[in-house]
Design a protein that fits this description.
The complex is a heterodimer of chains A (156) and B (516). Chain A is of the alpha+beta class. Chain A contains seven helices and five strands; from the N terminus they run ααααβααββββα. Chain A is elongated and about 50 Å long. In chain B, the strands form four sheets. A five-stranded mixed sheet of chain B has the order 2-1-3-4-5, with helices on one face. A five-stranded mixed sheet of chain B has the order 13-12-16-14-15. In chain B, strands 8-7-6-9 form a four-stranded parallel sheet, sandwiched between helices. The chains are: A alpha+beta (156), B alpha/beta (516).
């Protein structure tokens, strides 16, 4: 189970792990997001203090990068490639199918599943590609997608 | 009797279509049948369409089995897999797989062949030979070899690597850096990933050679976060190199110190632009810098920095081993050497083909790729990622040559080739080019930040059939403005795919939106 409440002590530990170097901010945020799924206002304040940066500096970096969510995601994260190689193999149709199946638009969460766009998973010879909870899948037909979603939910 | 060696790739594409499950099933079946095997997780040979591709070594010959599913495994054992037994999945010796014949494997020659994280296997396959050679011959010999090779940046810009390295070498500074750009964001490309997963120690050696040549003691790899398996393999490879004295202080007693730090990106496409990447490596927003100063003079943390793509760097060890002239002897015109072309999208046999420049698009798409996956006619081919032009089916006889592509308003970029069949709506592809630019623009310059959003709006009006002529002219003018006034290739080259649609597929604007 991914913890969605961001623990302050763990955050401090992550900062220390990167030597509290301000130039490691992107790496620190990436580690926090991998652990907790998102970055909160409180985390931004805490990082500003611990890295001796302004809150505006941290906020700017958080909101610049697509990976750094500012809202907690669902238990499961489904990313569907929206880029050209996947478009050529029905990526748009697969996205529509996923939206209907999961009852969520891109960037939205429903029933603890967050649906997100991704622009290329580097799996372009096995298009269309999706990533479910950090694992990349290729040659994903609509039927295959349904199986993957079932397996994801069974894995709770 | 020694254990039979069975190879199953641990590479993103192979794993994405079931290689882990196949490997697990092979281990189980071997146990069940009392067969002694050694399961090796190699990289991919690049015949991605055959993944998961399993090999078994019989009397020193590796016999390949293609498109293996976990359900096939029991049957394969029943058909005497350990002795290369006949089975419907059997392709024969890997060296005789047609897709892999006729390639010019200069940079990717170890991919698939070796065990990526084994230092012994690496050393047995010329690993660190070029670095040792560099130590023996000195930095100038390396700089000369790279200049002689005619190698140009494989990330897409095609800048001569030798000039870049010499510039950094000649710039005085207390600290210099090697920054490896592994932010492979172009759709249709995966060669960096395949190399890092299949030959990570080769990249580490390449960066050390670059560091030695220009006098840099520290390297960074900026890896995109969309590649989690690559991250895990590369992290381990860095440890393996450190544990064996190939990174760190006084490498193998040479007196040369070199360390590599692995950084993850965070989902920003524009961070593949070299100065945005440097900003991101400094922990900041990935906003493009003005040039000059060039990174070679003032790069990471203001210090002289070599910024090179993964494939550029990985081309160097063989240039040191075999000589720059040998590399320059391949290719055509000013496009020397080889490029790892990546066949993607709607293509029957997708994968990676490393070939000398001069090969035609048609040869790649037909001879290697086997045409479209859908079996329908090719309508358009986008070369060079989201900033590359769409070519028509009539333009496919063009040679892969940087300058020839420039002449027709296209680019080779990082070598990604994305094929579309005749069901594609090109007006939507033009719209997507602008939309993608709007999503990914760093926001620093107005033509890119605002132009891309206005571009989507104008294309929507064109598709809706509003004031067609006026909007067409407006879009052409907008493309000119973006191309000439943007700070970097993001805004500057988004017009390429848009214009190619206007020039070659304009009829799609009239019919777009007819289907749901």
């Amino acid at each position: 189970m991914t913890e969605r409440r961001i623990d302050k002590d763990t955050t401090s530990e992550i900062v220390r792990q990167f030597g509290a170097r301000p130039e490691m901010l992107v790496q620190i945020l990436q580690t926090i997001v991998m652990r907790f799924g998102w970055v909160s206002e409180d985390t931004i304040r805490q990082l500003a203090v611990e890295l001796n940066l302004s809150r505006a500096d941290v906020y700017g970096v958080v909101t610049y990068y697509h990976d750094f969510r500012t809202e907690p995601p669902g238990q499961h994260i489904v990313k569907i490639c929206q880029a050209e190689a996947c478009q050529a193999m029905g990526g748009r149709e697969l996205t529509d199918h996923a939206r209907a199946l999961l009852g969520a638009n891109l960037h939205a969460t429903n029933a603890d599943v967050t649906l997100e766009p991704v622009y290329c998973l580097g799996n372009c010879a096995c298009a269309p590609a999706v990533m479910i909870n950090g694992k990349t899948h290729g040659r994903v037909s609509e039927g295959r997608f349904d199986e993957l979603v079932d397996a994801m939910k069974a894995n709770n | 009797m020694s254990a039979t060696r069975i190879y199953v790739p641990r590479e993103t594409a192979a794993v994405s279509v079931g290689a882990d499950e196949v490997a697990l099933e092979i281990a189980r079946e071997a146990k069940r049948s009392g067969t002694s095997i050694r399961l090796i997780r190699n990289g991919s040979w690049g015949a991605t369409w055959l993944e998961p591709l399993v090999e078994v070594e019989v009397d020193g010959v590796r016999i390949a089995y293609g498109n293996v599913t976990k359900e096939d495994v029991a049957g394969m054992f029943a058909a005497d897999l350990p002795n290369g037994g006949e089975h419907e999945r059997r392709l024969g010796p890997i060296t005789e797989v047609p897709y892999l014949i006729g390639q010019d494997r200069w940079t990717f020659w170890r991919c698939g062949l070796t065990e990526p994280l084994s230092i012994d296997d690496f050393l047995a396959h010329q690993g660190f030979k070029a670095l040792q050679q560099a130590f023996a011959d000195g930095p100038d010999a390396v700089l000369d070899a790279v200049a002689d090779s005619g190698l140009r940046g494989r990330g897409g810009a095609g800048f001569p690597t030798g000039i870049k390295w010499r510039t950094v070498a000649a710039t005085e500074a207390d600290q210099k850096y090697i920054a490896c750009n592994a932010d492979e964001g172009d759709s249709g490309t995966f060669s960096d990933r395949m190399l890092m997963e299949g030959d990570p120690l080769g990249l580490i050696e390449s960066m050390a050679i670059a560091g030695f040549a220009v006098g840099a003691s520290k390297g960074y790899i900026y890896l995109r976060s969309e590649y989690p398996l690559t991250h895990s393999i590369l992290s381990r490879a860095l440890d393996v190199a450190r544990e064996n004295g190939w990174l760190g202080d006084n490498i193998q007693g040479s007196g040369f110190d070199f360390e590599i730090e692995l950084h993850l990106g965070a989902g920003s496409y524009v961070c593949g632009e070299e100065t945005a990447m440097l900003e991101s490596l400094e922990g900041k927003k990935g906003i493009v810098r003005y040039k000059p100063p060039l990174p070679a003079h003032e790069g990471l943390f203001g210090k002289p920095t070599v910024v090179n793509n993964v494939v550029t760097l990985a081309s160097v060890p063989n240039i040191v081993n075999l000589g720059g002239e040998r590399y320059a002897g391949m290719g055509i015109n000013r496009s020397k050497g080889t490029l790892a072309f990546q066949l993607a999208g709607n293509i029957r046999r997708g994968g990676l083909v490393e070939k000398s420049f001069g090969v035609t698009l048609r040869e790649l798409i037909d001879d290697w790729g086997g045409g479209t996956a859908s079996g329908r006619p090719v309508k358009a081919v986008q070369v060079g990622g989201p900033l590359g032009a769409y070519l028509t089916a009539e333009q496919l006889d063009i040679s892969l040559d940087y300058e020839a592509f420039t002449e027709i308003g296209a680019m080779i970029g990082h070598g990604g080739i994305v094929v579309f069949d005749d069901t594609v709506d090109m007006a939507q592809q033009a719209r997507f080019a602008m939309e993608f630019c709007a999503i990914e623009s760093c926001g620093k310059c107005t033509p890119c930040r605002i132009g891309s959003t206005r571009g989507v709006e104008v294309i929507d009006r064109l598709i809706a059939g509003e004031n067609r002529e006026e909007n067409y002219d407006l879009l052409v003018e907008l493309c000119d403005t973006m191309e000439h006034a943007s700070l970097c290739a993001m805004g500057g080259m988004t017009p390429y795919p848009v214009r190619s649609v206007l020039n070659h597929f304009a009829e799609d604007f009239a019919s777009s939106g007819d289907e749901p």
